[in-house]
Specification:
The protein has helices at 7-37, 50-77, 130-135; strands at residues 94-99, 102-108, 116-117, 122-125, 143-148, 151-160. The chain is α+β, with helices and mostly antiparallel strands. A 6-stranded mixed sheet has the order 3-4-2-1-6-5.
């Protein structure tokens, strides 16, 4: 298996993913806003709620855009420093763990949890997620358990970088 990409490359990839999502959301917001104010969206009777539904959609997209913008700023500000041997996992750490005999690579980032990077080899987790909370403070050799989706996952930390 080829070596993992350096953390700056992972950060750049996550920023590209989040930026693409933001662009998509902005287009959807514009479309919903235009649909809500278009003359064809005028209610034909008291039960016609097309314009109202579009305005709710536009409002939801606007909130998501604001959240994504803040997340992009957080990811952009995260440091990609190298963690020393024996140092506990914290924001910015690349954690290699073993789960059921398989290697799992997790990057603790401030935003973008669930994103898959480096050809699906690295999963982004945030310290706000159950898995991220379980990993923060762990060192190589530590074990952590986390209940996710009705099952308990047990991970043994192999390295923290």
């Amino acid at each position: 298996m080829p070596p993992l990409p350096a953390k700056p490359a992972l950060k750049d990839e996550l920023l590209r993913i989040l930026t693409a999502d933001l662009d998509t959301r902005e287009r959807a917001h514009r479309a919903a806003r235009e649909a809500a104010t278009h003359e064809e969206a005028r209610p034909e009777n008291d039960k016609d709620t097309r314009a109202l539904e579009q305005s709710y959609l536009a409002r939801g997209e606007a909130a998501r855009i604001e959240e994504l913008g803040a997340g992009l700023a957080e990811v952009g500000a995260v440091t990609t420093r190298t963690f020393g041997q024996g140092e506990p996992a914290a924001l910015g750490a690349l954690v290699v763990a073993e789960e059921d005999g398989a290697e799992v690579v997790l990057w603790l980032a401030p935003y973008g949890g669930g994103s898959r990077l480096a050809g699906d080899r690295v999963q982004v987790v945030t310290p706000r997620s159950p898995l991220g909370r379980a990993l923060v403070g762990k060192r190589a050799g530590d074990e952590c358990e986390v209940a996710l989706a009705g099952r308990t996952r047990t991970l043994v930390v192999v390295s923290v970088d």
